[in-house]
## 1
Amino acid sequence: ILYFLNMSAETVTQTGQCNCGNIKYEIASTVRFSGYCHCKACSRAMGQSPVHLVMFNGADCIKVTAGNVKHCSGIGKMRHAFCGDCGTGLYQHPDGADVRAVFPVNFQIEDGASCRLPEKYHPSLHCNYENRLLDSTDSLPKCKVWPGGEMLNNDGTPTQA
C-alpha cells in the first residue's frame, strides 16, 4: 500500500506560523502522507470537513521558535495544539503517537507572487472517508479509515478488489 504514501524518505524542512504571528515553528522530518481527513476529531476541531493534513513522522518533529503553544484534548485520544492568542490550529496527534498532523495552510510558502502549496505537500488520498459529510468526486483514493485498510468509492461503497 506504499502508493498511498507517495512521499520520499527525504527529510523536509518547513516553517510556519499562526495567524497573528505570535507562534512560529519549524518542522524537520519525513512526510508520512498528505491528505484530506474526514474524521470527527479533525472536522470539529477545524470547523470544516475535510481537513487537509500533512502527517510528519516523529513526536519531536516540530520545534516552536516563538510563542507558547496551547494544547487541549479532543475527541477520544486526540490532542490539539493552537495559538492561545488568535486560536489558529497548528497541529494535532493522537496521545502517545509518533506523528504530528500539521495544517499546511499555516506554512510560510508565500514568495511574493503566489501562495500555492508546493507539490510535495499536495493531497494524495482521503482518510476516514466513512465519516464524510459529502461525497468527493476527485480521483484520489478513498480510505474507509486509514491507508492500508478498506478502500471506498466516491459514493462510499466498497471498492471491488
Note: DSSP finds one helix and twelve strands in the chain.
## 2
Amino acid sequence: MKKHFTFSLRGADWWKPFLVYWVIYAVLYAATVLLPRWMAVTAHPFGYFLIVFVLIVAQLLDQIIFLIVALRIVVPKVSIDGKGFQFRGSVGTFVGISIVGFLLTLITATVYAPWFVRRITSYLVSETTF
C-alpha cells in the first residue's frame, strides 16, 4: 500500500519570520557593500577588516538562526496519513555546531568541510521525529 506525504504550509505560517530575516540580511548586506564609501581601507585597515568580519559573522548568524526557525515552521506541516513530523532542534545548539564547524573549516583550509556537513546533517536528522 502506497502512502503519500501531505504538505499543508500556508503563506501566513512563514511570511513574518521570513520578512524579519530578509530585513536583517538586507541591512547587513547593504552595510557590507557601502562600507568602502564610509571608511577607507588604507586609512584604518584593522578597523575596516574588523567591521567587515563582524558584518559577515552577523550575516551567518542571521542565516543559521533563520534555518532553525524555518525548520520549526515547515517540518510540522509535512505528514503521512495525517501523522506529522516534528522538529525540536535548538537555535543555541545549532549555532554552536555551526560556529565550531566554520572555524575548523577555516583553520584546516576546508579539509574539515565534509565532516562539518555530516555533523550538521546528523544534528538536523536527529532532531526530526515522526
Note: The two ends are 19 Å apart (CA to CA).
## 3
Amino acid sequence: FTMTIRPLIAATLMGFALVSFARAEEKTIVGVAAGNDSFKTLVAAVKAAGLVEALEGKGPFTVFAPTDEAFAKLGKDKIEALLKDKETLGAILKYHVVSGKVMAEQAVKLNGKSAKTLNGKEFKIEVKDGGVLLNGKVKVIKTDITASNGVIHVIDAVLVP
C-alpha cells in the first residue's frame, strides 16, 4: 500500500508545482510586481504615471525593478513629489525598461556596452566582481524573474536619467 501511495503523492505534488509555475508565467510584468511585497512603491509609481497598460502590453520587456528599499533611498519628500509629477515619474520609470527579453546570461555579455531604454536614453552595463552594475553604481541583486511579457531584474537603487 505504501509503495503505491508514495509515487502518487509525488506525482500530485509535482503537478501542483507545475501548475503554480505555469500561473506565474501567465502574469504580466505588472502582475508579477504587484504580487511581490518588495515592489509596492514601484507598482504605485507605475499606476501614478499611467504606465500599467503599457507594461501589461505584449512586450517583451526587460524591467530593472527598484525595490521599496531602493525607492526609500530617494527620501519620502522626493517620492511624494515624483508621484505628483506624472511626466517626470514616467520618464524615470521608462528609464528602467528595455525593449526585448534580456536574461541575466545575455546581460553579462553586454559588459561595457549601453542599453537603450524606453525613454530614449541609455544606461551603461558593467560586470564587476561577478555582479552586474548599471551606470557604475546600481547593483542588480536578483535576476530572471519571468513574466508572460518579459523579465524582471531587481536593482538596489532607482536609476535616474
Note: The longest helix spans residues 2-26.
